[in-house]
Amino acid sequence: MNKLTLLLLYIVFAFANVVTAQTKVSGVVLDKSNQPIPFANVVFKGSNIGIVSNEDGRFYLESPNTYTALIVTSAGFSDKEVPLEKAVNYNFKIVLGEAEALNEVVIYTGKTSKKNNPALDILRKIWERKRKNGLYLFNQYQMQKYEKVEFDMNTIDSAFMKNKLFKGMEFIFNHVDTSDVTGKTYLPIFINESVYDVYGDNKLKKVKENLTGNKMSGFNGNQQILSFVKDLYSDYNIYDNHLKFFDKSFTSPLSRTGIDVYNYVLKDSAYIDKKWCYNIVFYPRRKNELTFKGDFWVNDTTFAIKKINMGVTKSANINWVKDIYIEQEFEVENDSVFLLTRDYMMSDFALNKKEKSKGVYGKRTTLYRNHKFNIQKPEKFYKEEVNFIDNAVYERPPEFWEENRFEKLNKDEQGIYKMLDTLQTVKRFKQLYNLVSILGSGYIEFKNFDYGPIFSTFGYNEVEGIRLRVGGRTYFGPNDPWRIQAYTAYGFDDNKFKYGVSGKWMLDKKNRLIISGGNRRDIEQIGASLTTTNDVLGRSFASSALFTTGSNGKLTNINLSNISIEMEPKKNFIVSAGLSYRTLESASKTFSLDYYTTLPTPENPAGVVESMVKQSEANIQFEFMPNRKTIGYGVERDLVDSPYSHFFVNFSYGLKGVFDSDFAYEKIQVFYRQPIIIGPLGRTNITVETGKTFGTIPLGLMSVIPGNQTYFTIENTFSNLNFYEFVTDQYTTLQWNHDFGGRLFARIPFMRKLNWREFIGIRAVHGTISDANRAINASGLPYNAPEKVYWEYNAGIGNIFKVFRLDFSWRGNYLDMPDAHKFAIKGSFGFYF
Questions:
Q1: DSSP SS3 for 665
Q2: Of 217, 212, 284, residue with least CA distance to 252
Q3: Are 608 and 597 a contacting pair, CB within 8 Å?
Q4: How far apart are CA 735 and CA 757, in angstroms?
Q5: Which Pfam families match (predicted)?
Q6: More confident residue, 398 or 24
Q7: Rounded to whole angstroms, how far apart are CA atoms 329 and 341?
Q8: Rounded to the nearest 5 degrees, what angle is found at the Cα of 798, between the Cα atoms of 792 and 799?
Q9: How confident is the model at residue 449 (pLDDT cuts 50, 70, 90)?
């Protein structure tokens, strides 16, 4: 289940006792013409508790203490003291007047100066010392970490509570509370607690976290939700130049490039924990960029951050997230060491960014304690376990949590556990949960069996016509040590049944030693990808697209059987070996895989031709994916949606004579993909594939450069090539794609509100064919190889209506080839942050 599906689940299940603080106030800051003043500084008088208003001038402030006045300041306006006559004050309108005198304590207006700005002088000193603060001061460190993650449905009102959706679940509304950040009502619907022992070595640049306890409300044992939570709130360092949230790179207010992105104003100075600190307010220079607004307090001697509060600007080009709010607090270990002790992050997920729209709060609170330093551990201590899970960690008794919680749960948080456990027994809730689960996974769940994937039920191609497919898999839980999958399909034009069946069994959990095997008889578009796969049940989108850009009868009947064994001796390093047997035969009268077994001679000008390829093959593969994150510990794992490098090598050997196999050959294939996040410029993906076959082989075993005759973008294909337009036995491809994330469109005033995102890319391939392979070709298909590099380039617009992307692709050369596509438009759907 992907991230957005889980968020949809929380929104659908969002289900009054209000615990009030001593002082609450919300409102809007305006100028005399009744226009909102963005990024005004609002603090309780006589305290360091404050917030910066958003782009619409709105703010909310809360404290458990009693305060009788606010101080509101903004660059270019006179400071204003606002009395608070009640403990709870909502919908204040605070009007600021422009500064009237030259000696007014106001230095900057609008965009702040990059020269003679004391705030920037302090910022430069922060840069100089940032690698000498906190944990970086020591060779090694140890500490305990407590993490609490909570999801809440927000903006609860009486109409929402009366919705028929919640019939039979009305008891959940007894847990409604009020956010101390936004002032909105919310209903807790999920909570997860974790305790870790953390070890770090700055010399080795290694960090290890040992999970010692985990407790989750309502969804115990669901590793997908746990991994989703971890991915949603990845760790970050406020001193880094860029902070990654939801696969987006935000410019940190402490970044060395911050001067070009933020306005900075030195607003105040005061003692905090007996340390003299400066208060600096920051807000973005431009709209629609991935930036924050807020303020921080920094010590005047170490230039270490004591406290920082910041929120994402409303106009930031990010989907489904209305707000992100971050607080970090640091404590003084001694005169020179400031250590992070509290990290709080709240995200407001919603379908739109309107002020009154309903959504889901995702809140993470992380606390640290018991720091120890310079206790060295051997390097092997930091080696990550490949596939280890200690079930006792998820079954800790109440006494463990009483002892290891760094802060007690409040009354509402304690009630979530009981409420969610009760909710699991409600039939209506189960029905809603199952519906969203089907949309996320593509499978309909039955007891120990899943039907699907439902999205493969219908298909179309020129050979089968309309194609119907049914299938399923065994499923006892996400950590199953074995799994069997099967399907059958029927084509209404060829009147034939097809099928596939496969099974996997994990023999050794620690090293993920897995054996697998299966058989498939089906129709396939071979040559839809270059890199070899042993997935028996795999089927290319090219074989069953409902609509195509041109005629395609170049389909193949395939009968594939294989057995394989794999293991993961090191985290994300996989070694596998296998044996396969396949027969290939044309599925269409307009397409041939014929090859000569005896070449034509003057005595026998027709030669001897064979139509079916029978081939046995052995292969060994190596796959390395550093920084890949996975979900679960079973024989099949899901991937967490985060960028990682991917390196793959395959060696194949044709076993002539084994099971009447026809050809002997050796093949090597290498695949490498590298994602690169380039700070404010977006994200680049570079993919290189290369391969060579040694020996004589027919068309069915050649390396076909993958074309794309669908109307949809297909990864690692060439948008302007037809199927079989280029055929090779030696090839090298290069693909480069870059996502600017909307940073260019954000500079164009009339396009800012669209929040579109820009993509550019280029694809190129070089390949050859040996004379021997040309000689045995009897298919009638002309062998064309891109001996002169073929290339095409593309530009695209994404985030159209938040779910659609259009790619425009141009052919760079080979323009005079038959049926050449000089220009193509492809589309794709997806839900992205």
A1: strand
A2: 284
A3: yes
A4: 20
A5: CarbopepD_reg_2 (PF13715), DUF5686 (PF18939)
A6: 398
A7: 6
A8: 170
A9: very high
